[in-house]
Every structure is written in C-alpha cells, then in structure tokens.
Amino acid sequence: MRVALLAFLISFLILPRQRSPTVNWLLPRPNACAAKAGRLFVTAGASKGVRSVRFYDGKRLISKQRRGSEGLFSAPWRTAKARHGRHVLRAVVTDRKGATASATRTVRVCR
C-alpha cells in the first residue's frame, strides 16, 4: 500500500507531466504597421516535439514551417496584395501526436 502511494505521488507530483504544445508571438509587434514584405516570428514547443507551425492571415494560409531553430519558427509575409487595415495573424503549432495550440496577433497593413 505504501509503495503504491509513493509511486503515485512520484508520478503525479514530481515527474514532469505531458504538456500540450505552446506558441507565442515575437514579431511583428502588436498593432504594428506591416511593410510590403517582412517575416513573422514565433516561439513554439511541445513535450512530444513540434511537427509544424502554420501561419495564417485570417483563414488564408501564409506558410507552413516544419523546422525551427531552438524553438524559433519564422515565415515570410508579403503584404503587397493584402488589403489595407487590420489583419489578425494566427500561428498554429502541431506536435508529433497531433495536439495543437494557437496564438493570434493583430497587425495593420498600411504601406
């Protein structure tokens, strides 16, 4: 009984739990004015390993990145044909088991 309780406590309280993926925006800054061409940067991680990070402008896929460096993922964003005004960018990370997480960033196209 004590061994089972000890094993439970170790597995539940001490050992790291499986965490869902995380993603956080770095650039562009919130409400920034986007140039004709730039790069999008996020940090992403997952305990199961990152399979991909997808970047969206609204519902439109901008880029899908399968490789990052030390958790840093980036994608080019060309705004030459984008409408002026407010855009909601979304980054979606998918881990190797298929779990996802997303983060949004509002920017402006005002070239």
Verbal overview:
It is elongated and about 40 Å long. A five-stranded mixed beta sheet has the order 2-8-7-4-5, with no helix packed on it. It has a single domain, classed as Immunoglobulins (Immunoglobulin-like, Sandwich), CATH 2.60.40.10. Helices cover about 10% and strands about 55% of the residues. The protein is built from one helix and eight strands, in the order αββββββββ.
CATH topology: Immunoglobulin-like
Q: Which CATH architecture?
A: Sandwich
Total of helices = 1
Q: How many β-strand stretches?
A: 8
What average pLDDT do the residues reach? 87
User: Can you tell me the residue ranges where pLDDT is under 50 for at least 5 consecutive residues?
Assistant: none
> CATH homologous superfamily name?
Immunoglobulins
- Class from helix and strand fractions: mainly beta
What CATH first level would be assigned?
Answer: Mainly Beta
| Beta-strand residue fraction | over 45%
Q: In sequence order, what are the helices and strands, one letter per element? A: HEEEEEEEE
Strand order of the largest sheet: 2-8-7-4-5
Amino- and carboxy-terminal Cα gap: 69 Å
* Helical residues, percent: 10-25%
Report the principal-axis shape: elongated
Report the major sheet: 5 strands, mixed
Number of domains: 1
Round the Cα radius of gyration to an integer and report it.
19 Å
